[in-house]
Amino acid sequence: MLEPSSSEEEDDDIGSSFNSGFNGGSSHLEPPGGVHQNGGPPRVPSPMSVDGSMAKIGGGRGQENRGRVDGRGSPSPSLVSEKTLTEAELQEKQQKEEEERKTRIQLYVFVLRAIAYPFNAKQPNDMTKRHQKVTKEGLEKLRAKVDSFLKGETQIPCDEAFQNAVHSYNDIFLKSERVTGLVNGGGLSQHDCRDVFKHQIEKRIRTIPEIDGLSKDTVMTSWLAKYDAITKDDEQRRPGQRLPTAMLGNEVMTKEQLYDLFQQILNIKKFEHQLLYNAMQLDSMDEQAAAIRRELDARREKVAMMEKDRRLMPKFVLKDMEGLYIEEMNAAINLLKGNLESLPVQQGAAKEGKIKFGKIKPGRSQSSLSRGAPDEADDSHVAQLSKSDVVLTFQIEVVVLEVRNLKSVPPNRIIYCTMEVGNSDKLATDQVEASKPYWDTQGDFSTTHCLPVVKVKLYSENPGMLSLDDKELGKVVINPTPLSSKAPEWYKATVSKGSQDQELKIKVAVRMDKPMNMKHCGYLYAMGKTVWKKWKKRYFVLVQVSQYTFAICSYKEKKSDPSEMLQLDGYTVDYIEPAGAMFYHMNLEGGKFFFNTVREGDSVLFATEDEQDSHNWVMAFYRATGQAHKPAPPVTTAKTTSLNKNQGDADRARKHGMEEYIAADPIDFDHHKLFSKLQCLSLDWRLGDPFASLGWFTPGQVYVLDEFCARYGVRGCYRHLCYLSDLLDKCEKHTVIDPTLIHFSYAYCASHVHGNSVPANPLGEQFATPDKCIEESTRPDGVGTVTQEEKEKFQEIKERLRVQLEYQLTNFRFCFPFGRPEGALKSTLSLLERVLMKDISTPVPQNEVRSVIKKSLENAALVNYERLSEEARIEADLANPQEDMVGEVIIPPARKLEDLIRLADLCVDLLRQNEEFYAEFQNAFAWFSDLLVEHSEIFWSLFAVDMDSVLSEQPPDTWDSFPLFQILNDYLRADDNLKNGKFHQHLREIFAPQVVRYVDLMESSIAQSIHKGFEKEKWEIKGNGCATSEDLFWKLDALQSFIRDLHWPDPEFGNHLNQRLKMMACDMIESCIQRTYNCFEMQLKKGILLNPTDYVLPSEICAMVNVVLDAKNQSLKLCAVDGVDVGNQKPEANSKPKKHKYHTKIDDMIEKTSANMRIQLVGKLVSVLDKTLSKLGAYDEGSMMGSFLSFANKKINVTGTGTDLGKSYVSFVRINMDTVTKRIADDLWVLNVMEKWYIDQVELLSKWLTERLDKSLHPYQCTCLAHIVKKIYTEYELQGLEEDRLQCGQYQAIEQRMATEEATCALTNAEATENGEDSDDEKRKKSVQKSKMKKEESREDGAKVQRQSSKAPPPPVREESSDTEVDSEDEKPKKQKAKAKPKPKEKEKQQQPPSQTGKDESDFDSIEDGGKIPMAAAGAVKDALATGGVDKVADIGKESVAQAGKMLTKGIGGFAGKAFGSFF
User: Fold this and answer.
1) DSSP per residue over 265-283, as a string?
2) What does the alpha-carbon distance between residue 1125 and residue 1161 come to, in Å, rounded to a whole number?
3) pLDDT tens digits, 579-594
4) What pTM was computed for the model?
5) What angle do helix axes 1414-1426 and 1455-1463 make, rounded to 10 degrees?
6) What percentage of the chain's residues is helix, strand, coil (to nearest 5)?
7) Distant-in-sequence, close-in-space partners of 1345: CB < 8 Å, separation ≥ 6
8) At CA 615, angle to CA 614 and CA 616, rounded to 5?
């Protein structure tokens, strides 16, 4: 069987590399009993000797055939050159080759007869279809096509999933050395390649998620169509091109194709076939049937001789079988006679295309022969015939074509012809004018007369009105026979005496078909004792009544029944000299060439006028009588006449030496040995054809071999024994043979030898029979005798088969790679069970089968592991080439570990392939899975030895071996049979200490990294925290992921590792948070600069906050068991409370730290507002500093307006809002900070204003606070704070207070305008504008134009425009959003009429910015009061007057009082 090579390089002769590679391996690779030189199991020496004749006949068994389609030539030359041979050796060699040629030609003669006239077998049409096999060149082409597709050189569209599937198929299957070995053995077909691809993509498609509108079946169909497009054959057969014989491996063949097939099998030249075909008259069915009858008579004579001389019989296992053997031989002969008799006489009618007869199935005899009484069978053939048995039916065609020399009628007269045969109905031609007497009318007649009379008459139409009959012009009478010419001839017509048409002629063609049961006919002179007692010329017909019954009959004209007849049973025919004929009959007139038929007590003399006619009659009689002696014509000295075709063919055959093969008597040959050679050569041809046959013959081969066995008496057991021997020879040469085929033949032989009948299904009840025709061939043939040769050969084959099966089971991965051929492994197991049976009926004990398979699988584990180790070593050498070094090469431990990991991958892939492609192992026997588990454990135990050795050489505290544990453990834990097995426990014991040591070292390393990292931490934002925190969380997560991915098989130890890692993560995170919070407090303690509104929150603080927030997210993953806090679970009843509350602990700590950070951060930001308000407090009413600042600001504008301070604080708020929002990752935490910051600011403002309820705000204070109050509402609204939080009670009170203060400031500025006093700012601006005007007037015109064009007039100063200048780009959309959503008070303004809302907030902002238009503000208040206003506004005005009076008494000024007095 197949053996993969141990070398990675591919040779041209891969088969030789298989042998050398297998022999060069370890001694453990040998199957029990040793290994044959060619790599297969040893051949057990046969206990029987083979004689010389058998050696001669089988000498060509290993030769290849010339003229084959696959290109194989003549037998390969000897390794020893002919020049080195002596003359005697060369002559001996040539003599052997000549004997071999003669044997093949003689065998071909017998095959030709079996093909020409089969009567026992038929071609099976329901055999399993065999697909075309993949050759070496085909495999290379297939690999090249797949590589081209993977490189993108084809136009086939595909997605990534399909390309990955093809890549996996290419790496695993196509590039495998086992596939190469399967191809060399001829066992891989293109259909197998497609099946393997389909099997692989089925698993992939099952893992693909469902897609709406696209079913997985559609994906499967699409992928297979793409595979077919990749692997399609470029050389397409042209339409109508005839297939060669080698390509007809699945079809039913015609006779011509069968002839061509066996010419190739037996290496027969075409001209030799033609000579034999013509000389043997293979196209004559009568000749072939006569040859069969002669063969059967010869066999019967031989049986009679055996019965008299028992020494001629073969040796039997029992003496009593000799009598039974005679009966079986007679029964076989009677069966053949019955089959021949059952065939219709008209078997060859299909050739004529006229009469067709139904075929009778071979094997069913319709004769009255008795198989047990040969004498009675002989008498049945001598039954007397009646005249009704020889009635013949003839089909006659009459065609009238033309009339010539018609003169008695005018040219325009209508004429026609009639035709009749005997007393049949008349038929008439078409009517034509006499000037054009042409027809092409055919009349078909049927008659039983052997000498019929055909009459053709010519008529002219009578022109008379009262005439009833047409006028007859002439007639022709013809007497046709089957041998007469069928060409048209001119016949002279008979006319009346006074007619003008004396030379009238009619052209007529008469065709009389010859019935198939009429073998010959013609005129003979005859005279006999009982029939034809007078010598005269008569018309004779040789009639075949049945296959064994012939009669010679004489007929008279117009008679259906013969006048006299002679049944030819028991007669012989031969030529006789004329002198001898005259001796018996003195007065013979007529006849020149004589022959006679003789039987005991009777003889009939015949004579013809023509010599050729005499030869034809003698050969017809020779075929009918079935005699063994072939008549030879007498030698005459006179000039011979021309020879017929058959004589010429015989002479040509005699000239080329073929006559001796044709004339050889089949009874003189040992057909068993001839058949053995024929079957062996047929198998060689079949295994060399383009199909992956696996040893199964073609339908045509089965047909011919069956016919040969039946016709020449080859015993069925001997046939199957030879077949088994040939199949085992092929198996030993690494040719792939289907075990099912071996099983059928073995079951047949076992049934025959043990004397039991073959069961309906020889494979057992659990196996289905795949082939109906083979099932029929394995049925017992009723033969009860067993020869000594058959028994010995069966025992030899049984032992060879047992060794071969054990060898195949040991090397199942190489004999059946990837489960190919399909079902072969299962059939092998079933066959092994059958071989171990002592007889056909007693089942073998299961323990015995189990022990044999167990031993084979133990050896298989060793074979597979050593082959895999060698493959891994070769891959390692290719990956790490070593230069040629002297001495021992030291391999470092790291390289050994890499090689071990690679070997582990290969081992896992091997066992997975066993599960995937050899699943039939599990289904063969119920107990077989236990043996497979043992096989796997033995396989892993061999790996464990190497693993322990490599791991012991590794340095301490190295973790490169953990991938090895993951590979092995992931596979073992998924296998229910190997999980927690011996090797799995061993693996756990080795790696447990390493895991513990690894966790200890990682814990120490992480703790040190925390300590050193926070000492050097710069607190730059990185990821979700800082550099140290990111490294810490990554290490903790990687450690836990690594331990989790180990999938530790021991649950207790696995839980312990998990809990330890969770506790370690809790401690590390706690240390990280504590260090971060300390740094946070230190950072906040840093003071604020002189100008508090310039303070920007440092990025370090944001990074620290992010660290704490990231720790919160990481703790849920790193400190919880499967994402659930084990400390929060309620303990069950009667169970101890769980103590692992480390996640709850760290979570509480994180929450507290986060809250403290939020409070301290907001406090730092609110402190800026506190300092800003303390700066505004210097303007308080009544204080010395306030009066001084008011005066200084009024005269020289030292401190500026309050709006500038408000803008700077708003800018501070915006910048820090952006900092917090952009640099802190947690949006919820940011929102909480914003909410607290806003509330604390409002509280601080409310508190500051509450302390000044009894005082009016200075305009500086008023404008500053008004700007701050308005803007912070908008800013915090943009940050997402809810309206109910923004519109709190304190904010509403602040808003009302600021509205009153703004109104007061507006009135004060209006009074100053009435007094003609300009503010300092206005004065300064006016002076600046005057100076600019003077400079512009003094410049040149051109420069003035340029200056005016380059300098636009300044836009009006508005509060919102000034705010926009200090806003960042990110705040512009927020402002637009704030403007789009008006405040409650703005909504009220929008609802007022345009006259009221025309003066918008910008006007008041202008007053606050510099009091540019105070009259507009005063006018607005006056108009509001004049129109009635709101009562509440009036009350507010009164309160403002009272406040203004108090202010006047304190020296602030009386302008506001005058203004209010003038309004009221």
Assistant:
1) HTT--HHHHHHHHHHTTTT
2) 31
3) 766 555 666 788 889 9
4) 0.66
5) 30
6) 60, 10, 35
7) none
8) 90
